[in-house]
Design a protein that fits this description.
This protein has 467 residues and is mainly beta. Among the domains are: 215 residues, TonB-dependent receptor, beta-barrel domain (Maltoporin, Chain A, Beta Barrel); 53 residues, no CATH class. It is 6% helix and 56% strand. The protein has a 15-stranded antiparallel sheet with strand order 1-2-7-8-9-10-13-14-17-18-19-20-23-24-27, with no helix packed on it. A 4-stranded mixed sheet has the order 11-12-16-15. A 4-stranded antiparallel sheet has the order 21-22-25-26, with no helix packed on it. The protein is globular, with a radius of gyration of 28 Å.
């Protein structure tokens, strides 16, 4: 639940025929999030055994992984529900300790308040304009979580509340200089400082067991109350040219330095103390020491209204970016890992191509978007595996970092006005049926692959006023 409010005021002024605008503003935001988990875990009783054959469905896929595997038949969810409901209290009994151990540590109550204010001044000097300002932000966060312990008999004891809080103040200056090279051509230079706060679920010391990940090992997501916000210094230079009557072409370079970058890590544990699993993968967000991003971006968008006849309804839009990045890990992380991989979710090549057609009654959009593969979670251990005798396998190996697959998607949408406010609308999304999923180190070591098929929809839309 979020509550926020903002107010700002601006005043124009002149200094020796140079006109400017001075602005002031404040903003207050209060964000509150809770999570309550009530898992019920049942165990076979009275010597009852259940076989997978009792709940098998009819779905199978003989072409799985390009016909390399026979996949299925799979279990049927409705049969599983029927089997459970017909055996409750007899063949299946509730395990209260296991249910509480999985549920209570995932509960939390978190609240974050941000008080912000800014001062900004914009003034022009002929072909040169200058915009400068500073933003002040005070963040106050608090949370309540639960810690669970067991007695010597394995019974779950009453949960112990864990309270915590953090507060910090940031001063974030920025400056932008724009020089008009020609009538429709500008050069911009920008410097600014910004922050990125941790997510609620990342800072609360909760523990969530993912019931869908049992092979090869279960995954447990834990919070990290020591997380700090990421702070970035951003440097940008951009050239832009405006086409008349409608269009823009721009290109630029950017460089960003990061302190305390936040990223997700996956670490495999064989704990010696009492844990729900003998081996599990722990997923936790941590702060790195530093990082940087540099890259190039370009975009072109134009309405081709200068073409004759029906062709004047066409328009084009295209953009491309190439980025490279590096991170530095904390001392001792993952066996003293000293390499410098890319930042998570940072794909080297990203591009979008689009075409449009607009006439008084007809409007159509077609787009292709692409993102290269990117790191989803850091996993590789430089010193080997869990034991000193484990072999050291490189980053492309089966214990390398976890990656998201590359993604190229085709979409189309359009509408046609039939009469006044009545339109026929239709769209097709993910026409290429692109894969979503993850792999470990190299694509020959897949973790998860999901296909959702294209989504097609059409219908009529009516608005009270003619468009």
């Amino acid at each position: 639940m979020n509550f926020q409010g903002a107010a700002s005021v601006a005043r124009r002024y002149s200094v020796h025929e140079h006109y400017g605008t001075l602005q002031f503003g404040i903003k207050i935001r209060n964000a509150h999030k809770t999570q309550t988990q009530e898992d019920q875990i049942y165990c076979p009783a009275n010597g009852t055994n259940f076989a997978l054959s009792q709940v098998l469905g009819t779905f199978s896929n003989p072409n799985y992984y390009e016909k390399a595997y026979q996949y299925g038949p799979l279990s049927d969810y409705s049969k599983i529900n029927n089997l459970i409901s017909s055996n409750l209290g007899t063949g299946l009994v509730l395990d209260p300790n296991a249910s509480l151990l999985q549920s209570l540590p995932a509960d939390f109550d978190a609240n974050e308040r941000v008080y912000a204010g800014f001062v900004m001044n914009t003034i022009g000097f002929g072909k040169l304009s200058l915009q400068s300002g500073v933003r002040f932000e005070a963040t106050d966060a608090s949370y309540l979580a639960k810690q669970v312990a067991q007695d010597t008999s394995g019974n779950v004891l009453p949960a112990t509340p864990i309270n915590g809080s953090s507060s910090y103040v940031n001063i974030l200056p920025s400056i932008q200089v724009q020089y008009r090279i020609q009538k429709d051509t500008n050069l911009r230079g920008i410097f600014g400082i910004g922050i990125s706060r941790p997510n609620f679920a990342d800072i609360v010391p909760s523990r969530q067991v993912d019931p869908n990940t049992t092979t090869p090992f279960p995954q447990i997501v834990v919070g990290n109350p020591a997380l700090k916000p990421t702070k970035g210094n951003n440097y940008d230079i951009l050239v832009e040219h405006y086409f008349q009557p409608l269009g823009i072409l721009q290109a630029g370079f950017f460089y960003k330095t990061l302190s305390d970058p936040i990223y997700s890590t996956t670490t495999r544990f064989r704990p010696s103390n009492q844990q729900p699993f003998p081996v599990f993968d722990q997923i936790q967000s941590i702060n790195g020491r530093s990082g940087h991003i540099t890259g190039f971006e370009a975009a072109w968008e134009q309405r081709l209204s200068f073409l004759p006849g029906l062709l004047r309804g066409f328009g084009v839009a295209a953009n491309y970016s190439y980025t490279t990045s590096q991170v530095t890990f904390p001392t001792g992380f993952n066996g003293g890992r000293t390499d410098h991989p890319r930042l998570q979710r940072q794909a080297p090549n990203n591009w979008n191509l689009g075409a449009s057609y607009d006439r008084p009654r007809l409007s159509v959009r077609f787009a292709v978007s692409h993102n290269d593969a990117s790191i989803y979670s850091y996993f590789w251990t430089q010193s080997g595996g869990l034991n000193p005798s484990d072999p050291v396998v490189g980053l492309p190996g089966p214990n390398g970092d976890q990656y998201l697959y590359a993604h190229t998607q085709y979409d189309i949408q359009g509408s046609y006005r039939l009469y006044r406010g009545l339109r026929f609308v239709a769209y097709g999304l993910n026409l290429s049926n692109e894969v979503f999923g993850f792999y470990q180190g190299s694509k020959i070591y897949p973790i998860q692959r999901e296909f959702y098929q294209p989504t097609v929809s059409f219908g009529l839309r009516w608005t009270s006023t003619a468009e």
